[in-house]
Amino acid sequence: MTGDQGDAGGVEIEPAVALAVFGDRIGLARRYALALGTDGVVRGLIGPREAGRLWTRHILNSAVVGSLLSNGQRVVDIGSGAGLPGIPLAIARPDCSIDLVEPLERRCIFLQEMVDQLGLVNCRVIRGRAEQVLAECGGADVVTSRAVAPLAKLAAWSAPLLRVGGKLLALKGSSAAEEIERDRLAVQATGLVDLAVLTVGAGALDPETVVISGRRIATAPAGRPKKAKPSRRA
Fold first, then answer.
1. How many structural domains comprise the chain?
2. Sheet order of strands, 97-102 included
3. Average pLDDT over residues 114-137
4. Which tens digits make up the pLDDT trace of 19-43?
5. In this structure, is residue 224 part of a structural domain?
6. Which domain holds residue 96?
7. Of 3, 24, 38, 76, which residue is the least packed, with the fewest Cβ within 10 Å?
8. CA distance 36 to 82
């Protein structure tokens, strides 16, 4: 289900399904949508053309991933940018704690403003790259990301942040299955297995949100295995 673009190319009109996704926290989602579609565009955090599909393509696309979370889980959202998927998840799943990890200062400033203005007590902003925040964010139940990097790189950044048994939930596009085939060995080398493509948001979104999931079973190897040297013939 899709919403309609606002007047004069403004923020997309809220789709009716948003209420079902956010429930009694819909007011927070509305305030985030308004801030993202206005101030977020002015500050270069989201493209001006995205305002007309802000709810369906971005906010709801992110929030429906909350159906894959379990009660009380600690989630790390790497490369959070303007807060996608982290802020919609924090709104939709107040029972879970969300860390928004972002290296760029100007984005962190916006994220902190949103956390403060929306009163998201289950959400914190941490400035840094994924590999720099292990001490503060490691041992997570779930690591999420959205349009951050190819799967092999994403796995290398995400796996060290996960506890053994923790899950990777990477929001991807229609080529998710091809990414798994291409990067499967590199991903497995990080300790992530059981790679699968999931879709969420049936009945709420068209197209549905595509997610690559994986499970961490081991600590990543210390380094790549060295290739065996060819034997010398006499």
1. 1
2. 123-127, 97-102, 74-78, 140-146, 162-172, 209-216, 192-200
3. 97
4. 999 999 999 999 999 999 999 999 9
5. no
6. 7-216
7. 24
8. 8
